[in-house]
Design brief:
Elements: E1 5-6, H1 16-25, H2 44-60, E2 67-72, H3 75-87, E3 92-97, H4 100-111, E4 115-121, E5 141-145, E6 147-148, E7 153-154, E8 165-168, E9 185-189, E10 200-205, H5 222-227, H6 237-252, H7 255-275, E11 281-283, E12 294-299, H8 306-316, E13 319-320, E14 331-334, H9 341-358
Parallel strand pairs: 1-13, 3-4, 3-5, 5-8, 8-9
Antiparallel strand pairs: 2-10, 6-7, 9-10, 11-12, 12-14
Helix pairs in contact: 1-6, 2-6, 3-4, 7-9, 8-9
Bound molecules: pyridoxal-5'-phosphate.
Pyridoxal-5'-phosphate (PLP) binds near residues 10 and 76.
Length: about 350
């Protein structure tokens, strides 16, 4: 069996050790005579998995006591709507627009009919940087996208706000230690950095949960899930099990600090290859905003067929998922936690060789 290097943006690579452990346990989970997929979400067998996932997230991501960790469904896209539904208080919600995902979050605020304001945007430059963001002290809440998966930009530091800061961290959750003193709610779909699609992680301060209006449906209230330890209804049990294995893997790698160091080294290797290509490769993101998770780049003469050719060669060499998103074109290498240094080295070697042949 040959495993490819998967540079896809999401769903994306999962560590091989995690897949193998799931395979070993798939049919008979720890001698229980059934799969974890078949177990009741009220069983002791599942309960242990559920709580282990929660405990490991709190331990490894250093989530303070005043936050609840929730496992929801509906993806980050449902959070775009749940945030205004639960947190709007009749004042103004403020957003920074740093790409397509931020724009979608803004659209849901609009659909909810709440008052909102876009305080900063890099749309004019095709979202190639993180703009300076200044939120009002009296906003109902402020919303940012920490890593812009398509454009390959990432905040170096979260804005300091008086109003609650809400972060869509779908594509960089668990990739570096975050500063919880600046955060009030952080959410992410699991399928980029934390496991398979199907579970959405929401980490929310307890004191934000009481804002919710009576008209919000039970399932769309953070409070419902917080009060029941994310077991109000059937949670995505298999996804949570996989998430627990991914967290164990992170722990085995030395924790999120060690993962962050490796992520920096991987990204440096790729950006160095772009910087040292004599202009053959052109990064989309401005250097001060470069993402450590998604490296979006073009080949200097965008109109030639070189980009398609490089994608084709990469596939022949066992690398997949490198074709860039249509809004940027070119190539995008998603180098989440599960991408090995070896995979990045293979890509860089191909890029250097390709540039030599076509410069
Ligand atoms: C992928 C992604 C989303 C969408 O996530 P779903 O779970 O598919 O709804 C939202 N925001 C960001 C930053 C993403 O990368």
């Amino acid at each position: 069996m040959g495993r490819v290097f998967n540079f896809g943006a999401g769903p994306s690579a999962i560590p091989l050790e995690v897949l193998e452990e799931a395979q070993r346990e798939l049919v008979d989970f720890k001698g229980n005579g059934l799969s974890i997929m078949e177990a009741s979400h009220r069983s002791a067998m599942y309960d242990e998995v559920h709580n282990e996932a929660l405990t490991l997230i709190r331990e490894l991501y250093k989530v303070p006591e005043e936050f609840d960790i929730l496992f929801l469904q509906g993806g980050a896209s449902t959070q775009f709507a749940m945030v205004p539904m639960n947190l709007s208080q009749g004042g103004v919600a403020e957003y920074a627009d740093t790409g397509s995902w931020s724009s979608k979050a803004i659209k849901e605020a609009q659909i909810q009919g709440i008052d909102y304001k876009v305080v900063a945007s890099s749309k004019e430059s095709n979202y190639n940087h993180i703009p300076e963001v200044n939120f009002s002290d009296d906003a109902d809440y402020c919303h940012i996208t920490s890593n812009n998966t398509i454009y390959g930009t990432q905040y170096r530091e979260f804005p300091l706000t008086k109003a609650p800061l809400i972060i869509d961290a779908s594509s960089d959750i668990f990739s570096y230690p975050v500063d919880w003193s600046r955060i009030d709610l952080l959410y992410a779909g699991a399928q980029k950095n934390a496991g398979p699609a199907g579970v959405t992680i929401v980490i929310i301060k307890k004191d934000l949960q009481d804002r919710v209006k009576d008209s919000v449906p039970t399932m769309l209230r953070y409070k419902t899930h917080a009060e029941k330890n994310s077991l109000y209804n059937t949670p995505p049990t298999f996804g949570i099990y996989m998430l627990s294995l991914v967290m164990k893997w992170i722990k085995g790698q030395g924790g999120i600090e060690a993962i962050a160091k490796r992520n920096e080294a991987k990204a440096k290797l790729l950006y160095d290859a772009i910087n040292q290509s004599n202009g053959f490769y052109v990064g989309h993101a401005r250097e001060d905003s470069r993402s450590l998770m998604n490296v979006s780049f073009n080949i200097k003469d965008k109109d030639s067929d070189l980009e398609a050719k490089l994608v084709k060669e990469s596939e022949e060499a066992g690398m997949i998922g490198l074709k860039g998103h249509r809004s940027v074109g070119g190539l995008r290498a998603s180098i989440y936690n599960a991408m090995s240094m070896e995979g990045v080295e293979a890509l860089v070697a191909l890029m250097q060789d390709f540039a030599k042949r076509h410069a």
